[in-house]
What we know:
Elements: H1 2-8, H2 12-20, H3 26-37, E1 44-48, H4 54-62, E2 67-71, H5 75-84, E3 91-94, E4 97-98, E5 103-110, H6 123-128, E6 134-143, H7 145-148, E7 158-162, H8 168-173, E8 184-190, H9 201-210, E9 213-223, E10 230-239
Helix pairs in contact: 3-4
Amino acid sequence: MLQKMLSAFEAPTTVVAALAWPKFSLSSLLIATRLRRRGIRPTTIIDAGANEGQFAIAMAHVFPDATIHSFEPDPKTYRRLARNVRRYSRVHTHELALGDRRGESQFHVNTDAQVSSLLPASEERKRAFPNARTTGTIVVKTDTLSRFFADLDVAQPVLLKLDVQGYEHRILEGAGGFLPKVDYVLTETAIRPLYVGEVPCGHMTGILENLGFSLDLVADWHHSPRDGTVIELDLLFARGSDREPR
Length: 246
């Protein structure tokens, strides 16, 4: 991780981004840059699990002509998201959790807002991140991709980014008739489940393959602070891709 950070910050653009962007994430910048180098050019980006806007801001800079829809259900985090992206006219924010049904759900709030989830943390996550503790639950609104975008025009190519702490497969279950409009799925996936009910990487890959997507790129990876092993991957899947995965 240290080597990744040092090499990234050798680039002047990275230093400028870290200083000038309202919310900077090295991981988000690296992912956006790797997508562009891979030839991905989304017109619409659906940012499920937006947190404070790290990914949306990186994508807005790397793909300035794209329209971005960012979803964040936690009211406190959503307010920071809305504030951070207000200068980006093509980023639209929604205080909502995407999932497999429309209604309300319990949301597990963590001391680290980036790992708050609709699912409770597993013992594996608690061991790997002992300082990230669940502080309680709140009720948040939920909806499906198919219902939310039913009356909205969505220009292709569409990139669906899923970073919802174990709930990614449930969003796909609720995508319904919207899924054929999606050209790329960028999903965070765990090697072993970090949330109760999360499906592991191999299962997630099988789900996406059954939906007509093929693995195209390993966009990023995350290590356990406890022992340094890789515990999560950010994987890009392309619809019907016959390109050699990287």
